[in-house]
Design brief:
Elements lengths: L5 H10 L4 H7 L4 H11 L14 H8 L4 H9 L5 H4 L14 E3 H8 L6 H18 L5 E3 L13 H5 L4 E5 L4 H8 L7 E6 L6 H8 L6 E6 L12 H8 L7 E5 L6 H6 L8 E3 L7 H5 L8 E5 L3 H9 L7 E5 L11 H15 L5 E6 L3 H13 L5 E6 L9 H18 L6 E6 L5 H11 L6 E4 L7 H12 L5 E4 L2 H5 L6
Parallel strand pairs: 1-2, 2-3, 3-4, 4-5, 5-6, 6-7, 7-8, 8-9, 9-10, 10-11, 11-12, 12-13, 13-14
Helix pairs in contact: 1-3, 2-3, 10-11, 11-12, 15-16, 16-17, 17-18, 18-19, 19-20
Length: 494
């Protein structure tokens, strides 16, 4: 393995670019491995799950790029640069590999040099100046908490012209967005956290000027009530200008007046990913939202009727459908039984390529029959979440929960597609020891299955002994209790 040539090693390490533990261990094999993996690690050195405040070597490496004159000046200001001044020459030109900048990480790293806020501000300014000179290009920028007008450095125009991904929040001054408007027209991926709802004009200008925006995400993260006006109108109209390029849309607006949303969403015809809410869309407006290329669809569980209409008008390419669920069904959902039944049917009639699916349904023979039909027809299904909901006001009897569990496992044993690898259960369903063992015995000889639940009963000793028996025998891959959030999150890996 250590004798593989650099080209092969590079291709292997590229596949590990999100696995920092493996990449760091590769540094220790030999010089060739080290020389090959360093450019990958330093392409975006801020993305790894490490504590940057304890990584003094990162501070030393970056500070080593400062001129001798700057080092002497900063030392007189009280910075701890003695290690940098006496440090041996670097083995690599690390910053020449770097194509990303994370402001939060930089703020943490500069705190190593001095505990004083003003000193940290000076050092950040010097570091950014070095970055603009040494980076070959800037592809990724996370500028949350930014305090420096970095796009006014002499080399900034060249660096920022290549920016393809930007993360930001609305708490920063609008002038930063206006600065980027002059430099960045080819951002492909833009993520905005709305932590301070105020003036959206700057960010709207930046969105509107883009020529190749493919992914847009907006998340409200505040507790302010915004009433009356269509406060997000500027943002949505700016997105409308990008209707010919946007493939992925993930927006969560609080307190929205839907007039502009109802106008803009039907015009985004090229969406492959859609995560949003259609609250207060009427049926006629929903039927105008036709997404023939849609592959990933996420919507709240109480919008089943809207989801069914979107699915029916899709192009049959949907691979993932997620229903956003809360801890409790705390509100009565109008026509829940009929809408749930229709939703299941629309899935197996229009989504034969479905791979990941969330279903929310009541406990009824008719609904269970339709789940069975779905499992028989959707042969590509790999991951399934089943949320059984019986009554919002009365706690179901234990007997009914056990009956639900028995019926579901019977259906799964009889009709599960061969590609299915995981099932998740929520709410009003429980498995007795007898039912669970019967399921395992019948499952023997089939593909290994992982099962997730947020019911702590399966951590009891008698269940643990039973589950371990069939896990150790290779009948199932896993059966375990997880937090509600992990069970609901279909991206959570088992």
């Amino acid at each position: 393995m250590s004798k593989l040539n650099k080209d092969i090693l590079f291709l292997i390490f590229e596949e590990l670019q999100n696995d920092s533990k493996s990449l760091f261990s590769c540094l220790m094999v030999n010089r060739i491995w080290c020389e090959t993996v360093i450019p990958i690690l330093w392409r975006n050195p801020w993305c790894y799950d490490i504590d940057y405040s304890n990584k003094s070597y990162l501070f030393i490496i970056i500070a080593s790029y400062l001129s001798d004159e700057t080092k002497k000046f900063l030392t007189r200001q009280g910075f701890q640069l003695q290690l940098v001044v006496s440090y041996q020459s670097l083995l690599f030109d690390y910053l020449s590999f770097c194509r990303s900048l994370n402001i939060d990480s930089m703020n943490t790293i500069t705190s190593i040099g001095s505990p004083l806020a003003y000193n940290q501000f000076l050092l950040q300014q010097e570091f950014y100046n070095v970055f603009m000179k040494k980076f070959p290009e800037l592809k990724y920028l996370d500028m949350k908490s930014i305090k420096h007008q970095i796009f006014y450095f002499p080399e900034a125009r060249i660096r920022f012209e290549s920016l393809t991904e930007l993360k930001c929040d609305t708490s920063i001054d609008s002038s930063y967005f206006y600065g980027l408007v002059q430099l960045c027209q080819y951002i492909q991926r833009l993520i905005v956290v709305n932590s301070d709802p105020n003036d959206y004009h700057g960010i709207a200008e930046l969105i509107g000027i883009q020529k190749n925006l493919k992914y847009f995400e907006w998340k409200d993260d505040h507790d302010f009530y915004i009433s009356g006006s269509d406060s997000y109108g500027e943002i949505l109209l700016a997105l409308e200008k990008n209707a010919s390029t946007i493939n992925h849309l993930n927006i969560y607006f609080m307190f929205i007046n839907n007039r502009t949303l109802q106008k803009v969403l039907p015009k985004l015809l090229k969406l492959k990913t859609l995560v949003t809410s259609f609250v207060r869309f009427n049926e006629e407006q929903l039927k105008m939202c036709i997404y023939r290329d849609l592959e990933v669809f996420k919507i709240d569980y109480y919008e089943l009727k809207a989801a069914s209409i979107i699915i029916e008008n899709s192009g049959g390419r949907i691979k993932k459908i997620f229903l956003e669920s809360s801890y409790e069904f705390d509100d009565f959902i109008d026509n829940f039984n009929d809408d749930s039944l229709n939703f299941i049917r629309k899935v197996y009639e229009n989504c034969l390529s479905i791979e990941s699916l969330s279903l929310v349904l009541p406990s009824s023979k008719q609904h269970f029959n339709e789940v069975e039909n779905l499992l028989k027809k959707c042969k590509n299904l790999k991951s399934l979440l089943l949320a059984i909901y019986m009554n919002a006001y009365v706690r179901p009897e234990e007997k009914l929960l056990l009956e639900n569990g028995k019926e579901l496992l019977k259906i799964i044993n009889k009709s599960t597609p061969t590609n299915l690898r995981e099932i998740r259960f929520l709410y009003d369903v429980k498995f007795s020891l007898e039912t669970l063992e019967e399921f395992f015995k019948k499952w023997k000889g089939q593909h290994k299955l992982s099962i997730l639940t947020c019911q702590p009963i399966y951590r009891e000793q008698n269940y643990v002994i039973l589950i371990n028996k069939y896990r150790n025998n290779g009948v199932i891959k896993d059966f375990r209790y997880e937090s509600f959030d992990n069970v609901v999150n279909m991206d959570f890996k088992i």
